[in-house]
């Protein structure tokens, strides 16, 4: 299986909102940087970050517009992440980078605009 396929499956999995399955795609020591926030390392730090997002949403969808893999196996995604949170639908343009180790995501960086998210939440 290619890393592009793995990354696409991971993005598609968010619609299930199944945190156990989402976490299973990440190495136990995964580095996650949801830029511009503070980086998180490992399941014990990442899971509590995702829990309120999943619990506070009635649906989540990562729409992948473009996906590419470099020679090192890193996968780049241009996406729109859509979350329905109460009466609000948040639609965020995101550039994501996934690095893999033994078929799992070992590093994940998402670049997005915090001010845009805050504006949509008000």
Sum this structure up briefly.
The chain is built from four helices and six strands. With 122 residues, the protein is an alpha+beta fold. The chain has a single domain (3-121), classed as Nuclear Transport Factor 2, Chain: A (Roll).
Explain this structure to me?
By secondary structure, the protein is α+β, with helices and mostly antiparallel strands. The protein has one domain: Nuclear Transport Factor 2, Chain: A (Roll), CATH 3.10.450. Helix content is 31%, strand content 46%. It has four helices and six strands. The chain has helices at residues 3-13, 19-24, 43-55, 114-121, and strands spanning 26-35, 40-41, 59-69, 75-85, 88-101, 104-111. The protein has a six-stranded mixed sheet with strand order 2-1-6-5-4-3. The longest helix is centred in the middle third of the chain and has 13 residues, at 43-55. The termini are far apart.
């Amino acid at each position: 299986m290619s890393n592009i396929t793995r990354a696409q499956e991971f993005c598609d999995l968010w619609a299930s909102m199944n945190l156990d399955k989402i976490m299973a795609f990440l190495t136990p020591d995964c580095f996650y940087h949801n830029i511009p926030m503070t980086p998180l390392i490992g399941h014990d730090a990442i899971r509590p970050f995702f829990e309120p997002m999943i619990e506070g949403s009635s649906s989540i969808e990562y729409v992948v517009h473009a996906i590419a893999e470099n020679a090192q196996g890193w996968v780049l995604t241009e996406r729109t992440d859509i979350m329905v949170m109460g009466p609000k639908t948040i639609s965020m343009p995101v550039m994501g980078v996934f690095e893999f180790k033994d078929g799992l995501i070992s590093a994940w960086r998402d670049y997005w605009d915090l001010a845009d998210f805050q504006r949509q939440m008000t």
